[in-house]
Write a structure and sequence with these properties.
Length: 83
């Protein structure tokens, strides 16, 4: 099922532990040793986080990556935020 959602990555909180990479290959190591999100539509986010929009069937992967992050640097936002 295709869903529209956004991944918000707080790179200030990211600690380079890379638990997210093995859950979702859209999280990749950047040249600064932290993680970045690839493949979606980049958007502005006021607080300096990386905000990337997707419209695909990989919401579950993104949520797994978010759950795996020990510092809570990843948020997955959907239209209906009921979870
Ligand atoms: S799991 Fe969290 S802290 Fe680790 S690299 Fe991914 S976003 Fe950064």
């Amino acid at each position: 099922m295709t869903t529209e959602y956004q991944i918000r990555l707080d790179r200030d909180a990211c600690d380079g532990i890379f638990a997210c990479l093995v859950r979702d290959d859209r999280f990749v190591e950047a040249s600064d040793g932290l993680v970045t999100v690839e493949g979606g539509r980049a958007e502005q986010d006021g607080d300096g986080s990386q905000l990337v929009s997707f419209n695909d069937d990989r919401l579950a992967d993104a949520r797994q990556a978010a759950r795996s992050c020990p510092v809570g640097a990843i948020d997955v936002l959907t239209e209906v935020d009921d979870e």
